[in-house]
Amino acid sequence: MFSRTAFTAAARTASRTTRVLASSRLPPRFPTAQQIRLLSDEVRQAIDRAVESSPVVLFMKGTPETPQCGFSRATIQILGMQGVDPAKFTAFNVLEDNELRQGIKEYSDWPTIPQLYVDKEFIGGCDILMTMHQDGSLAKLLEEKGVLVPAEEPSADASK
């Protein structure tokens, strides 16, 4: 059988080799300058214009009529339940433009889509909207910003 010293020496040699090989295949602990993607001025300006295009702007996967992910669908449902005025709402399908899809994440420093902006201010993703919807703060925010469908006033005929 193997002697204890020969086996230990062989194990040390093997583990050194494995460590060297393993470490050479692992990505660096911190991103290198080549891995950091900076948002181009062109994409930043396009996103600025998009955010400024309506009082309520949603960057989502798919369209409001045909969302392409459950989180985008849930966000659209929340905005509908809140009564957001369609005339004050714009949605952008990030699946149509990969630069937009990656750029919006860098623009907001938020890693997920969908992303909601109200009055040019980033509000959050689906999880944040769900929490705000449940605690009532989303309704208050949307009302303060004046982006809800105006309440219908009772007509004179209805009171008779």
UniProtKB/TrEMBL annotation:
One Gene Ontology term of the molecular function aspect: disulfide oxidoreductase activity
Presence of keyword Iron-sulfur: yes
PROSITE patterns, per database record: GLUTAREDOXIN_2
Lineage top rank: taxon: Eukaryota
Keyword set, alphabetical order: 2Fe-2S, Iron, Iron-sulfur, Metal-binding, Redox-active center
Domain called Glutaredoxin: residue spans: 56-123
Keyword field contains Disulfide bond: no
UniProt GO cellular component terms: mitochondrial matrix
InterPro entries the UniProt entry points to: Glutaredoxin, GRX_PICOT-like, Monothiol_GRX-rel, Thioredoxin-like_sf
Gene Ontology terms: biological process: [2Fe-2S] cluster assembly
Signal peptide: none
NCBIfam families in the cross-refs: Grx4 family monothiol glutaredoxin (TIGR00365)
The protein's name in its UniProt record: Monothiol glutaredoxin-5, mitochondrial
